[in-house]
Design brief:
It is a single chain. With 249 residues, the chain is mainly alpha-helical. It has one domain. Helices cover 74% and strands 0% of the residues. The protein is built from nine helices and no strands. The radius of gyration is 19 Å and the shape is globular.
Length: 249
Amino acid sequence: MDYPILQLQEMHILDHLMAFVICVIAPFVAFSSRKLSMEDMQFDKEDKIKLYHSNAMFLLIIGLVVISVWRMTGKTMTALGFEWPVWHHSLLLIFGLALIFYCLDIFFQYGLERWRLKALSKKDTMMMFVPSNASEFSHFAILAIAAGVGEEIIFRGFLIQYIIFWVGNDITGLVFAVVFSSAIFAFLHGYQGYVSMIKIFFVSMLLGAVFIISKSLIYVMIIHAIIDLVSGGVSAYFIGSDTASEVEE
C-alpha cells in the first residue's frame, strides 16, 4: 500500500454526540453569531485580553472533553495522536508549502504600502481581535498555544478519525476526511472574513495531511501554534506602528 493509513477506531454514542456538536451545533452557532455587526462591537485593551484568556480556556476545556470522551469509549491516547510522529520525506514538502504560503500571505498583506494600508484599514473590523501591541501579544500568545493544542485535538485527532470510521481509511476516505474537517474548521473562523476562511481551509488541509502521514498530533500542534504566533506578532508590529503614526499626526 503506497499511501499512509490510520487505524480505524470503533466509535460509540458519545463519539457521535461529540461529532454532532462539532459538525452541526458549532457551525450553527458560529453562523448565527455572524449576524452581529462588526461595527457594533468595540473592544478596549482589557476586553481583548479577557477575550484571549477566555477563548484559550474554552479551547483547552473542549480539548479535554474530547480526550475524556475518547478515553471513556475505550480508545487509547496513542490512537488519538499522542505519540512520537512517524517521519516520512513527504513531510518536508508539506512543511515547505506551509512556510511558502505563510511568507507569501504576510508579503501580500504588508509587503507594499498600498497592501499594508488596505490590511490596516480593517483593524477596527475584521482585525479587531488581533493584538495591536507587544503587551496584547503577550496575552495573545496564550491563546495561540491553546489553539494549537485544543483545535488540533478536536479537528485533526478526533474529527478526521471519526470521519474515516464512516467513509473508510483508503485514499478516497482520507482525502474526504481532510477536506471535510478542514471545511468545518474554516467555517468556524468565518468571523475573520471569506479570504481568511479560504487561507485557513488550505492550511488546515496541510495540517490534516501532516497528521495522517505522521500519525501524531505533535507536528500539527507545533505548526499551528507557530502560525498563530507569527501572524499575531506581525499584525501587532504593523498595527502598533500604524497607531503610533496616527498619534504623532
